[in-house]
Specification:
Layout lengths: L4 H8 L12 E7 L4 E10 L2 E10 L2 H14 L4 H5 L3 H7 L8 H21 L22
Antiparallel strand pairs: 1-2, 2-3
Helix pairs in contact: 1-2, 2-5, 4-5
Length: 143
Amino acid sequence: MAYSSAVMDHFTNPRNVGTIESADGIGEVGNAKCGDIMKIYLKIDENVIKDVKFNTFGCGAAIATSSMATELIKGKTVDEALGLTNKAVIEALDGLPPQKIHCSVLAEEAVKAAIADYYVKNGLEVPEGVKLCTSCCEDCMQH
């Protein structure tokens, strides 16, 4: 299984690792079949993601996709971050092996779970279409 240099870079030098005290939104998703667990923390000010951190327990691809997802949403509005797709994460990493696509799906879903948490904490309606991961893995190739 060959990984791109971008995947290897984000695996060996992950960006935005850690936690955020008093985070405005926290999303955690996991996949029992592969053992990957991702937790994303958001600090949001005036609808802009000012800071984002992650903790991921999993394989190199899981760490790389978490790292890239945080890079892709940092500084974006909440609405822009909701538009993040696993395909965008894959493209930004110059591809993933087919058996690791589920890692990019988990990264997307962790971001959306954190945003959903932000909406709930602030008494806002979670936008329609924010589908949270069910950790099934069977549908990952269809996202």
